[in-house]
Specification:
Catalytic activity: Couples ATP hydrolysis with the unwinding of duplex DNA by translocating in the 3'-5' direction
Organism: Sediminispirochaeta smaragdinae (strain DSM 11293 / JCM 15392 / SEBR 4228)
Bound molecules: adenosine-5'-diphosphate, magnesium ion
Distance between the termini: 62 Å
Structural class: alpha/beta
Number of strands: 13
Shape: globular
Helix content: 40-55%
Keywords: ATP-binding, DNA damage, DNA recombination, DNA repair, DNA-binding, Helicase, Hydrolase, Isomerase, Metal-binding, Nucleotide-binding, Zinc
Order of helices and strands: HHEHEHEHEHHEHEHEEHEHEHEEHEHHHH
Enzyme class: isomerase
Number of helices: 17
EC number: 5.6.2.4
Strand content: 15-25%
Length: 413
């Protein structure tokens, strides 16, 4: 048994790799730069954690989820991996203690927020340690084509200059080629090993339904599935609150999640949803990254999402346990007009163009009678042939939406 397999078993307790993990780990161990696009739940963490244990020096993991960093470190510690983090949320004492352990060479895995990296003089400080590998998690945050662009992430561009000989491994669940190209260019990856996993989520059933009385449509679905946990996405904060009220009046336990709420309340609602205290969370797209709930049986979109990328990521939160789950999109042409209205307000022409293209693609997805799975995978440059057996089009259960002509008219407006 080789060293990698031994660690997989002895440290993580797994006897086999998930798809693509072995190839990724081998490329990293061979000292190559790497770009890996693997779906959520694909097991990306292990791909840098195993090399971290095998390399002499320190592995630095850049992650945007400050709120989750402590959990990630605790999880690593519980496996016996010497890990620590540095970010703006910790006390000065905690940071000092982490530095002390770093100087003593006691840490193998250091989680870092991008804004920490951007602090003046920080990379010089980091250079005092023997860094073996940089792992950039959620690397799509570098790209404006990603669904979660973070200007902070641009600070990562300096890694290659400051550490010209240290390999960089970028991980993301965003698979568009445009995002991939942005990441490779901005991180200045050199002849990277590129891994693009399949983004097909076989367990998800995709369905588009005509949007009429959307509140009652949402309530009907939830009411018919009283033992199941689900997410309802709404475009605006107002509609999010309205939906929660509506469901509440029908006795359905639902909580809101959007950026207009204070941080603590948001965290509390997420926690209660994770613990199955409530059946449903109604959210704007602010809800998402870092959800770690595997028994979500349905994701309902009450409004047309702004992009295929967002739609894929949001629906992808269902069925992480591999059991069949429903993705329901309520679609009416009024949503196209509404999103178009927002797009017209965007001042930056490049951003406006991107948004328009995203909407165009999304509206087409919802309006044409083509296998939903095929359309999603094509968006990610993956081909899919034949009957998927798991969408409204392939199962012949499409509900006619009067969108066909209207949608096209609106799009070209
Ligand atoms: P990602 O970051 O790609 O979304 P994670 O790294 O969080 O995925 O892993 C998802 C889940 O899969 C975790 O619970 C992890 O422990 C588990 N996992 C990772 N690798 C394996 C494996 N080889 N066998 C079984 N489970 C695994
Ligand atoms: Mg991850």
């Amino acid at each position: 048994m080789n060293e990698v397999r031994r660690i997989l078993k002895s440290v993580f307790g797994y006897s086999s790799f998930k798809a693509n993990q072995k190839e990724v780990i081998n490329a990293i161990l061979a000292g190559r730069d790497l770009f890996a696009a693997m779906p959520t739940g694909g097991g990306k963490s292990l791909c840098y954690q195993i090399p971290a244990l095998l390399f002499d020096g320190l592995t630095v993991v850049v992650s945007p989820l400050i709120a989750l960093m402590k959990d990630q470190v605790d999880a690593a510690l519980s496996l016996g991996i010497p890990a620590a983090f540095l970010n703006s949320s910790q006390s000065q004492e905690d940071a000092t203690e982490t530095y002390r352990r770093l100087y003593r060479g006691e840490i193998k895995l250091l989680y870092l927020s991008p804004e920490r990296l951007a602090v003046d003089g920080f990379t010089e400080r980091l250079a005092a340690f023997n860094v073996s590998l940089f792992a950039v998690d959620e690397a799509h945050c570098l790209s404006e084509w990603g669904h979660d662009f973070r200007p902070d992430y641009l600070a990562l561009a300096q890694l290659r200059t400051a550490f010209p000989t240290v390999p960089i491994a970028a991980f993301t669940a965003t698979a568009t080629v445009r995002v991939q190209e942005d990441i490779i260019r901005l991180l200045r990856l050199e002849d990277p090993f590129i891994l693009r996993a399949s983004f097909n989520r076989k367990e998800l059933f995709y369905q588009v339904l005509p949007k009429t009385e959307v509140l009652s449509q949402i309530a009907q679905y939830i009411g018919a599935h009283p033992d199941q946990s689900g997410i309802v996405y709404r475009l605006s904060r107002k509609d999010t609150d309205k939906t929660v009220d509506y469901l509440g009046k029908l006795g359905i336990r639902a909580l809101p999640y959007h950026a207009g709420m204070d941080k603590d309340e948001r965290a509390r609602n997420q926690e209660r949803f994770n613990n199955d205290d409530v059946q449903v969370i109604v959210a704007t797209t602010a809800f998402g990254m870092g959800i770690d709930k595997n028994n979500i049986r349905y994701v309902i979109h009450g409004d047309l999402p702004k992009s295929m990328e967002g739609y894929y990521q949001e629906t992808g939160r269902a069925g992480r346990d591999g059991l069949e789950s429903q993705c329901i999109l309520f679609f009416g042409t009024a949503d196209i007009a509404r999103l178009n209205y927002f797009i017209r307000q965007i001042e930056d022409p490049a951003e406006q163009r991107r948004s328009r293209e995203n909407l165009d693609r999304m509206a087409r997805f919802a309006s044409v009678n083509v296998c939903r799975r095929k359309q999603i995978l094509e968006y990610f440059n993956e081909t899919f042939e034949g009957n998927c057996g798991s969408c409204d089009v392939c199962t012949g259960t499409t509900n006619e939406i009067d969108a066909g002509t209207d949608a096209r008219k609106l799009l070209s407006a």
